[in-house]
Amino acid sequence: MKLSKFFAPTLREAPKDCILKSHIYLIRGGFIHQIGSGIYNFLPLGKIVLDKISAIIQKEMNKAGSNQVTMGFLTPATLWEKSGRYEQYGELAIFRDRKNAAFVLGPTHEECVTEIAKTYVKSYKQLPFSLYQIHLKFRDEMRPRFGLLRGREFVMKDAYSFHADGECLNNEFNNMKDTYKRIFQNLGLDFRIVDADSGAIGGSGSKEFMVLAECGEDTIVTCTKCDYASNIEAARRQPKTSSVIPPQATSPYHKFETPNVKTIDDLSRFFKVDTHFLIKAVVKKAVFKDREEIAIFFMRGNDKLESTKAFNAVKSLKPDVLELFDAEITFLEKYNLPSGSIGPIHLRSITGSDLIFFDEELRDGEDLICGANEDSFHYVGVNLAEFQDLLYKDLVAVQEGDLCPKCCGVLQYTKGIEVGHIFKLGEKYSVPMEACFLDSHGKSKPFIMGCYGIGVTRLLSAILEQKSDNKGCVWGEVAPFKLDIIISNMKNKEEVQFGEKIYTYFCDLGIEVIIDDRNERFGSKMNDFELIGFQYALIVGKRLNDGIVELIKREGLEKQEIQSSEIIETLSKIL
Ligand code: ATP
Ligand code: MG
């Protein structure tokens, strides 16, 4: 390819709303072009990198025994009604055709693929099998941002496996875990496999693949001693204890006036009690399609509510909840709740709400202090064992310094970008969609399923967040073109002739070479090489007279002088 004919519109500046380096370089390097909120066109360079990433994924998926298909981007709404996700999936984009039939732009394809299995697979003899696709998805994300990291339209590799029993599913889950490891290793990424929340996809167990990067939207909890690693959304810890003895241990249950006490810290100072013995209330507004409800979460005073755990708690009672928001004072007033003095006593009758949850670590807690649901009053000597029908859930965000649930080592945080997620779905879709097979005794049984996703377009950003430097893109294996031959001065016939000779030689061998034959200054050709991130640059410049050319490796920008007579030999070894 000749750069003079190649459509690679590099820019000096990125638009102001680009914050992350991956977003800036993808736009400035002419890889992608934004056409709407969370929607991007892939320009030639972007398309090349996307295809290279896809090829690595495709090769490993085929090796792992999965069959490639392409399912419709448009999926009939009837399928989603059947699985129950038409009402529950918050990011669905729905439209109606001329006959007023409703369709969903596929955000994921469990429904669709289950329909395929239901149509064709009748007997246990046809199991197990796995289908995958590399295809478009659309999710009407609340906050599309950071370029390809969180788009609305994006490319996913999604695979689905079907089994007769759980053991077979476990084998495939491990097979996919190993396959994903190879894919991300082949991409040269530093990643971690972590326990995860199963989110809108559902199912029993899931693992996420996290590319370590400062900008990552996910907080990962890892143990400093063992291999425990979890997304904070699903992280566990050893139950927290307090070495301080509660001074109230002997106080009987009693209401106390607490003037000007508004926060947990105020309360701790007022009673001179460790926050461990205070019950903190966090109030949220649960939003449904047609209404709002109050949801109240109790935990120890030194703990924080984890938002996904809170959402899952509400969802376990009301599956049609869409989102939780912080409750404003006016919202509390509607339920007669005084902010700063909210507690569990008589709360159900005061609010009329059944969305009241207690953190597991408060289970049957004794000698606690809590709000009295009356401005400037608190109760001391509260024993939760005396309450009836409290709903306990794991609600708290594991904090740095907490102890590992596996080995009691100290836990710490890192940031990651989720690039893959594998799920054991079990019967979650096959039961509602009545997708069954006949087992070896002739009995009808629902398929046992697994599903396995990789964010293909998100990977472009993740690679750059981890590898790029302050000059531009570093791609590793998936760089667009292995070699960029830079002719320093297009007016110099020797340089042009030499560059073209090398170019033709490697093109004929089928190696991806591009030649920078534009009438541009040398400096701007170098800038483009660094910004775009071709794997190597061969500089054909003034020193060709002395029989010397220069080879630069983009990763690390190491330079090496090479005799022009030996260049073909040297490059043949490298490329
Ligand atoms: P997230 O927590 O980031 O929203 P998710 O849990 O919704 O991700 P899955 O439903 O598991 O994601 O989808 C599989 C993969 O698709 C994810 O691991 C991620 O890499 C990718 N992905 C999900 N949403 C987006 C998006 N909006 N833009 C780009 N890639 C995405
Ligand atoms: Mg999501």
TrEMBL record:
Q: Which UniProt keywords apply?
A: Aminoacyl-tRNA synthetase, ATP-binding, Cytoplasm, Ligase, Nucleotide-binding, Protein biosynthesis
- Chief location of this protein? cytoplasm
Q: Which GO terms describe its molecular function?
A: aminoacyl-tRNA deacylase activity; ATP binding; proline-tRNA ligase activity
One GO cellular component, as annotated: cytosol
Q: Which GO terms describe its biological process?
A: prolyl-tRNA aminoacylation
The subcellular location is: Cytoplasm
Fetch the Gene3D superfamilies from UniProt. Anticodon-binding domain (3.40.50.800), Bira Bifunctional Protein, Domain 2 (3.30.930.10)
Q: Which reaction does it catalyse?
A: tRNA(Pro) + L-proline + ATP = L-prolyl-tRNA(Pro) + AMP + diphosphate
Name the Pfam families for this protein.
Answer: HGTP_anticodon, tRNA-synt_2b, tRNA_edit
User: Which InterPro entries does the record cross-reference, listed alphabetically?
Assistant: aa-tRNA-synt_IIb (IPR002314), aa-tRNA-synth_II (IPR006195), aa-tRNA-synth_II/BPL/LPL (IPR045864), Anticodon-bd (IPR004154), Anticodon-bd_dom_sf (IPR036621), Pro-tRNA-ligase_IIa (IPR002316), Pro-tRNA-synth_IIa_bac-type (IPR004500), Pro-tRNA-Synthase_IIa_type1 (IPR023717)
Where the record annotates domain Aminoacyl-transfer RNA synthetases class-II family profile, the positions are: 52-480
Q: What is its EC number?
A: 6.1.1.15
NCBIfam families in UniProt: PRK09194.1 (NF006625), proS_fam_II (TIGR00409)
Domains: entry comment: Consists of three domains: the N-terminal catalytic domain, the editing domain and the C-terminal anticodon-binding domain.
Q: What does this protein do?
A: Catalyzes the attachment of proline to tRNA(Pro) in a two-step reaction: proline is first activated by ATP to form Pro-AMP and then transferred to the acceptor end of tRNA(Pro). As ProRS can inadvertently accommodate and process non-cognate amino acids such as alanine and cysteine, to avoid such errors it has two additional distinct editing activities against alanine. One activity is designated as 'pretransfer' editing and involves the tRNA(Pro)-independent hydrolysis of activated Ala-AMP.
Q: Which HAMAP family does the record cross-reference, listed alphabetically?
A: Pro_tRNA_synth_type1 (MF_01569)
- Oligomer status and interactors: Homodimer.
Q: Return the similarity comment.
A: Belongs to the class-II aminoacyl-tRNA synthetase family. ProS type 1 subfamily.
Per its record, how is this protein called by name? Proline--tRNA ligase
| Organism of derivation | Helicobacter didelphidarum
Which gene is this protein's source?
proS
